[in-house]
């Protein structure tokens, strides 16, 4: 049991009026399809009750009684730069009452949603620890100001006397930093009292506060690393409620400027101008890392835009112009793992311009291979506060050639954004896109699954489904498409293998309901790129499944949710779709050919090393024959990428049959060697390559380069 805050010890009853005297409320009406339009992140459906004024609209979902939408009724620019100029976007995911006891909590689910003369009423039930709690929640919207007042009465209906318990809300309202009254700079984690908590982003600054003169206790300690802020728990009562008693808590959600200091502007700035071009002198999308000598702190805020976020600046057309304080700066310019990097130290002087010409020549030729990121999030996802133009430029700047949009709960098409940028000269590197979605299970939560290609608007069922039902609906929506299991070893709600308690030694599933009929497995997820032990654990899982007769293609993808965290293309999947005269032709590959090759396993996964492996001319996804496998391994890497070891794994138990160091080098060719391996029965080989030094252009320092092939099957 968590300790109780001193400001509620001994309190058994709290009451307050549902709304202030100056807020008589607004009569609810039904949400219509026209209300939704092209607005992003809307979870209400036509027929749900809404409260609407000239300032804001609030929607309560009839199925569960959650407050799921709260948007500006007129266009308001977001207050995080990374969302760009996006105004047609909802400001929250969901907010709903909870009862919490220790580390366990239960939502209050609606038994009835009804309209009042001046608000929306939700009657619900929450069951926790053998106690049944009745809830009555009333939402009232201020008629002139952008704020919503909510009052919930909790009462004990069944079970033993309740307490000590905690009553409040679970709040999900985007994936940006949380500002708390009195803390100064935002913190990744916080537990303690506060007068208000807020976030910047869609629709402007949004703030949650308790009723006048009432306490609030915040808990958002689940975040593991910057980039995923996660849910927020706001508690308004901690204490005991006896049978027959009730507690009423009030709180207010309002669009209101957060009173914190704005980032300081550069003092006496000079200008850094960078011109990035390829080997032919053509402008190229690129990523620029900037570090000030003698200062370890990032130059830019983590939620900045293409002109600066964390340590990086991005360009879609090779042109960068950035004001910087006078000083010496180290620059690193990259355009993907197949090109050389450009490094230089520059001095910025006040009111002067420093011009840098960065040449980024291709050093590794891969015609017939297309570099794909199969897992990308942007503003349509409730946890990705990044606009679509910003996302596309960041993808292109990493040298990715094929981008699959995989937003939660919605189908996204990046192609119109690509065309918009190209028409305005803001994107000079070509990019192919695929329409897709990440089907994230709700109700019964057992994992996340990418499905592509899809038609916009044709969502796959994700609520209260079994794996078999989800997979069947995915096949309906995307006949012949790709069904991918994402990050299978995350917590049970997010990881398919974890939920079904996969045996690490055998690949057997201990929990019933597992469906094996998927196509690809995300072995290497960008969130685990800093921890190769976790990646190799899933690699072993995958090889166990291959040994059990499954022909799943291993993939790697970034799962990127923002600009400066989980870099697009780190890792990526290189798909050998066919033949091409040059690398410039790869972006024009037929999508059907690419997806066919992917499902056939003709692919490698990498964050740096590019591995070509073959047995008698047969590569990944193909079958060779012979009692000796003459496995040729060719490893290439750009000069700035470290590769120091090669490993060959065999069969279902991922047995190491070769491990060899690779001499330190800056030459693109790091190894070209043939290994003779005995074959005593049907088997397969997987080749891996790994570095020791971290990737210098990765958002996370210490992200070690790693790559591996899909299996080459060998029959004696």
Question: What is the fold's blueprint, element by element?
Answer:
Layout lengths: L28 E2 L2 H4 L12 E4 L3 E5 L6 E6 L21 E8 L2 E4 L1 E7 L4 E9 L2 E11 L5 E12 L3 E11 L5 E3 L10 E3 L3 E3 L6 E5 L6 E3 L12 E10 L4 E10 L14 E8 L8 E7 L19 E4 L3 E6 L2 E8 L7 E7 L4 E7 L9 E8 L11 H10 L4 E4 L9 H9 L8 E3 L2 E4 L7 E5 L14 H11 L4 E4 L10 H4 L20 E6 L6 H16 L5 E5 L14 E5 L14 H9 L3 E4 L3 E6 L7 E3 L2 E9 L8 E6 L4 E7 L7 E10 L4 E8 L15 E4 L2 E4 L1
Parallel strand pairs: 19-25, 26-27, 27-28, 31-32, 32-33, 37-44
Antiparallel strand pairs: 1-2, 2-3, 3-4, 5-6, 5-11, 7-8, 8-9, 9-10, 10-18, 11-17, 12-14, 13-16, 14-15, 15-18, 16-17, 19-22, 20-21, 20-23, 23-24, 26-34, 29-30, 30-31, 34-35, 35-43, 36-38, 38-41, 39-40, 39-42, 42-43, 42-44
Question: What is the count of structural domains?
Answer: 4
Low-confidence stretches: 1-22
Radius of gyration: 27 Å
* Helix run count: 7
Largest sheet composition = 11 strands, mixed
Overall shape: it is globular
Q: How far is the N terminus from the C terminus?
A: 60 Å
**At CATH's second level, what is the architecture of the largest domain?**
Alpha-Beta Barrel
Oligomer: single chain
| CATH-defined superfamily of the largest domain | Metal-dependent hydrolases
Instruction: Specify the CATH class of the largest domain.
Output: Alpha Beta
Q: Total number of β-strand segments? A: 44
Q: What is the helical fraction, as a range of percent? A: under 10%
pLDDT averaged over residues: 93
The SS-based structural class is mainly beta
Strand content: 35-45%
CATH fold-type name of the largest domain: TIM Barrel
């Amino acid at each position: 049991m968590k300790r109780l805050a001193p400001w509620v010890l001994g309190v058994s009853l709290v009451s307050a009026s549902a709304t202030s005297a100056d807020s008589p409320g607004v009569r609810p009406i039904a949400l219509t399809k026209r209300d939704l339009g092209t607005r992003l992140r809307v979870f209400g459906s036509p027929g749900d009750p809404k409260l609407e004024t000239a300032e804001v609209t609030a929607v309560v979902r009839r199925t569960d009684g959650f407050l799921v939408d709260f948007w500006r009724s007129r266009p308001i620019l977001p207050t995080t730069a990374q969302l760009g100029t996006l105004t047609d976007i909802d400001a929250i995911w969901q907010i709903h009452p909870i009862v919490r006891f220790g580390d366990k909590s239960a939502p209050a689910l609606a038994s009835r949603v009804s309209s009042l003369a001046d608000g929306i009423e939700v009657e619900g039930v929450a069951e926790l620890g053998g106690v049944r709690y009745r809830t009555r929640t009333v939402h009232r919207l201020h008629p002139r100001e952008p704020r919503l007042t909510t009052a919930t009465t909790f009462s004990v209906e069944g079970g033993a006397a309740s307490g000590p318990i905690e009553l409040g809300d679970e709040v999900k309202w985007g994936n940006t930093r949380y500002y708390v009254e009195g803390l100064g700079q935002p913190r990744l984690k916080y537990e303690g009292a506060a007068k208000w908590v807020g976030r910047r982003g869609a629709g402007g600054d949004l703030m949650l506060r308790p009723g006048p003169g009432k306490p609030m206790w915040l808990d958002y300690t689940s975040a593991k690393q910057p980039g995923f802020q996660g849910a927020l728990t706001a508690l308004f009562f901690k204490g005991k409620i006896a049978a027959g008693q009730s507690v009423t808590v009030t709180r207010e959600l309002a669009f209101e400027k957060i009173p914190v200091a704005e980032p300081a502007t550069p003092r006496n700035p000079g200008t850094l101008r960078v011109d990035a071009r390829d080997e032919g002198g053509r402008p190229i999308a690129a990523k620029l890392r900037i570090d000030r000598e003698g200062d370890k702190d990032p130059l830019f805020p983590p939620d900045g835009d293409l002109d600066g976020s964390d340590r990086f600046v991005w360009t879609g057309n090779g042109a960068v112009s950035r004001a910087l304080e006078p000083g010496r700066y180290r620059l690193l310019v990259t355009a993907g793992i197949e090109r050389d990097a450009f490094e230089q130290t520059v001095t910025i002087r006040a009111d002067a311009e420093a011009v840098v010409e960065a040449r980024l020549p291709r050093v590794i030729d891969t015609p017939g291979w297309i570099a794909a990121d199969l897992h990308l999030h942007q503003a349509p996802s409730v946890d990705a506060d990044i606009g679509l133009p910003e996302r596309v430029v960041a993808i292109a700047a990493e040298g990715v050639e094929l981008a699959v949009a995989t937003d939660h709960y919605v189908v996204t098409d990046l192609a119109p954004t690509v065309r918009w940028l190209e028409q305005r000269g803001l994107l000079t590197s070509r990019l192919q896109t695929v329409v897709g979605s990440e089907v994230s299970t709700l109700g019964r939560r057992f994992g996340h699954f990418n499905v592509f290609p899809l038609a916009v608007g044709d969502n796959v069922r994700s609520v209260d489904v079994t794996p078999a039902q989800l997979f069947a609906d995915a096949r309906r929506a995307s006949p012949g498409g790709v069904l991918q299991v994402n990050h299978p070893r995350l917590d049970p709600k997010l990881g398919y293998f974890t939920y079904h308690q996969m045996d690490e030694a055998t690949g057997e599933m201990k929990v019933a309901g597992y469906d094996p009929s998927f196509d690809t497995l995300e072995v290497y997820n960008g969130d685990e790129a800093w921890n190769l032990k976790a990646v190799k654990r899933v690699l072993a899982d995958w090889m166990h499944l291959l040994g059990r007769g499954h022909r799943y293609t291993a993939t790697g993808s970034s799962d990127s949710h923002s600009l400066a965290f989980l870099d697009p293309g780190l890792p990526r999947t290189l798909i050998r779709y066919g033949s091409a005269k040059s690398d410039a032709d790869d972006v024009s590959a037929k999508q059907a050919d690419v997806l066919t090759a992917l499902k056939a396993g003709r692919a490698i996964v990498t964050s740096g090393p590019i591995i070509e492996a073959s047995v008698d001319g047969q590569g990944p996804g193909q079958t060779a024959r012979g009692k000796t496998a003459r496995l040729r391994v060719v490893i290439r890497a750009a000069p700035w990428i470290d590769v120091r070891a090669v490993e060959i794994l065999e069969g279902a138990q991922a047995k190491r049959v070769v491990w060899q160091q690779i001499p330190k080098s800056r030459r693109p060719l790091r190894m070209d060697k043939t290994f003779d391996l005995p074959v005593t029965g049907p088997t397969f080989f997987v080749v891996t390559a790994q570095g020791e030094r971290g990737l210098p252009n990765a958002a996370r320092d210490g992200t070690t380069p790693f790559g591996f092939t899909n299996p080459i099957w060998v029959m004696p």
